Amino acid sequence: QVQLVESGGGLVQAGGSLRLSCTASGSIFSISNMGWYRQTTGKERELVATVSSGGAANYAENVKGRFAISRDNVKNTVYLQMNSLKVDDTAVYYCYADGIITWIELGATSWGRGTQITVSP
Known about the structure:
Elements: E1 3-7, E2 10-13, E3 18-25, E4 28-30, E5 33-39, E6 46-52, E7 57-59, E8 67-72, E9 77-82, E10 91-98, E11 101-102, E12 110-111, E13 115-120
Parallel strand pairs: 2-13
Antiparallel strand pairs: 1-3, 3-9, 4-11, 5-6, 5-10, 6-7, 8-9, 10-12, 10-13
C-alpha cells in the first residue's frame, strides 16, 4: 500500500514562509505527478500546485509568484515552498500523487492525511 506522509504544517504570521514536504512510501517504481491541494471547511478542495516526473509545474493563479513546487524523484518526495503567506492561505493542505506504479498495481492515485496551515494576521 502506498502512503503519503506530509510534514511542515503549522502556524505562521502573514508575510512569513513555510515549507511542506511529502514523501511517498511503498515499493514504488514511479510516480507521474505529485503536488498539493488545499481545503477549507465548507469549501471544495482546490489545486495549489503539481509537478510532473519531468519537472513541469503548474500553479493556481492565486499562488503564482509566491509558492514554488519541486520534487526529488529518487526520494519520492515533493516540496512546497510557501512565501509571502496570506490569511487566505489558511487551509488543510493535502499531498497528492498519481500514476503510481508498484509491484501489484498498474497505476494508482493517493492522498495524504492533510496538514493544517494557519496564517495569522
